[in-house]
Amino acid sequence: MPALLRRLCLLALCFALPLRAAELTVDLGQGARIYRTEQLLARSDVRTITIPDDVSFKRAMHYRAVPLKALLQGADADDALLFVATDGFAAEMPATQILKAHGSEAWLAIEDPAHPWPSIADGKAAGPFYVVWTDPQAMRIGPEQWPFQLATIRRLAPAAERFPAITPDKALKPDSAIRKGFAVFQRTCFACHTLNGQGDARLGPDLNVPHNPTEYLREDLLRAYIRDPQSLRYWPQARMPGFDHQALSDAELDELLTYLRHMSGRKAGLEKP
What we know:
Elements: H1 3-16, E1 23-27, E2 33-36, H2 37-41, E3 47-51, E4 61-67, E5 80-85, E6 90-94, H3 95-99, E7 105-110, E8 129-134, E9 150-156, H4 159-162, H5 177-188, H6 213-216, H7 219-227, H8 250-263
Parallel strand pairs: 1-9
Antiparallel strand pairs: 1-2, 3-4, 4-7, 5-6, 5-9, 7-8
């Protein structure tokens, strides 16, 4: 067979083969379950939903999606859940936020290979799976709670048990500003950053070693950076989102900085390469 004809036959075969479906792994401690694209799109609870102001696409988007809680059978409200993306992003969320939501509802958006979503910033893909929220304002859902390129969801022990080096002084009262700031840190920062070398995320730098940002940035500049990273350093490829007052109140920002200042005196765990 002439070489050109063989190449044409191979090309025709490639077009004839179905696109390989993506897989989402959900592991809640009773054995991992694998959900494939075509299985999810064929479920009886799949819906077309509209997100008026999508966090990643910065505009209205329409998705085929299933209620996320429907995929979390066996999870308890007290569980912590880790959402891991293929790009290294890792977001930890309390299961109760999804299982017993009041106002906001989490959905797993599923990209149909026959109708791919547009790219987000810098040509990056959001699919094949993406956690989106309807009415996110009701529960003050932050941008870090919209993980895209999702690959795995798994149950976790509490962060303080898994990563003891991120915990503040145990002698502190539960209602102290530092402990409140620790909760804010876990919700807003821990999805992208480690602290004292501990954490699942690999996107952002460590926030305590070798230096804590409270040690090298004036407080007003650090506050401005958290609110709008591009206001301090313009970097088109930057991944850090800004946290507006809806995602992070002034009181929560105060508590977060109080926690970071406290942890600057509790460095541990990370050696320079």
